[in-house]
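Researcher: Going back to the complex we discussed earlier. I've cleaned up the inputs and rechecked each line, so this should be the final set. Can you rerun the prediction on the complete assembly and write out the structure?
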Amino acid sequence: MKAFPLYEGTYSVDQSKKFIPFDPAVHSRSERPGSLFISVQPFLIDTGKELVLLDSGLGFTNQQDELILHQNIRNQGYDPADVSKVLMSHLHVDHSSGMVQNRHGRYEPSFPQAEYYVQREDFEHALLKPSRPAYQPMLEAMQRSGNLVLLEGSGSIDGNIHYELTGGHSEFHQVFRLESEEQTYFFGGDVLPEPEQLQRRFIAKYDFDGRKSMELREEFGLKAASEGWVCLFYHSDTLAAGKVRHENDTFLIDPA
Ligand SMILES: [Zn+2]
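Model: Rerun complete. Updated structure for the full complex:
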């Protein structure tokens, strides 16, 4: 089993909520006051039996009108058409806009051969209250597609892929664990989006339940350390994958 980060770039986001490309080699953070800086990085997992995608990125396209997500999968030597599972931590736009692509004026699943695993309540809430208007037709396209698998709570998909409803970051956020004999990958979505977030205790305003998120980070950090999991960090531009140690009450993360 092997994981490949599919880095989509770093962006600044201001009150307009638009994602504007940010290249630290060219731009400086002070040029964009009042902005958050976010890196976006879905993951492709080759389990040896199938290809699994963890979250689906921003849905941006390149100059050939190809999804950057597809291009990044090809760059790793794989064909996007071979992805058989898409595991969705939650439906915020920076994680889910690549679920579909616009073809000839209508949305279709970007991975037509894949089953998409989404928490049922997350999907239903997003459909009722889309975070932006353009989002609703995308969700409706997923609903029509026949590719959608709605999960309830926590459980296991095929014995090797486990999902856990956590809440915290968003009301129905879920995390995933992929197990093989040699390796366990943990994908914490936005409950554990960056390694640095293990290294300080804080309650974030952007979380649905900031205290719960803080407790979850600690809980998963401890489990990752004791079980030897490799953690995959969706919003990190410093470290895509890391193993966690817990020493003298502090977390240390080694590249994996
Ligand atoms: Zn989020």
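Model: Worth noting: The domain at 2-255 is CATH 3.60.15.10 (Metallo-beta-lactamase; Chain A).
Researcher: Good, that matches what I expected from the previous run.
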